[in-house]
Amino acid sequence: MGFSLARSGNTAYRGYLRSGAWFRRRRAWFTAVKDSGREAVCQVCGTTQRLDLHHMNYDGVSQTPTGAWVSGEADEDLMPLCRTHHEQLHEELDRRRRDFWGRDRRRATAMIVVGLRKRRQRQSTPGPRRRGRR
Ligand SMILES: [Zn+2]
Ligand SMILES: [Zn+2]
Asked: What is the pTM of this model?
């Protein structure tokens, strides 16, 4: 088992996020969603355009002794977010690091996503999508 990245902060997996292994894992995730007949949408605003995948955690990601990355993320550990909301999420993860100290990244992510949705509803410029739903 390679080393765990869970505790080592952002810099440890920066290399991974630029790797071919992640590129392929990301593509496989979107393919799997599509094949299952679902559509990937930003978990904050619902757009389907230009989606990133956020790691709820890095369980399963490791590096071999030769430095090759192993993409063992579970599908459900990856969360689709548009670029804007992905950036906002990371800003908040960094800024509120102290609030989230001791919580796992999944919890912190879930809390921030709820906060971003609420903020968006309050600002509620009636978006082109989801009008009149619920
Ligand atoms: Zn979004
Ligand atoms: Zn992310």
From this structure: 0.81
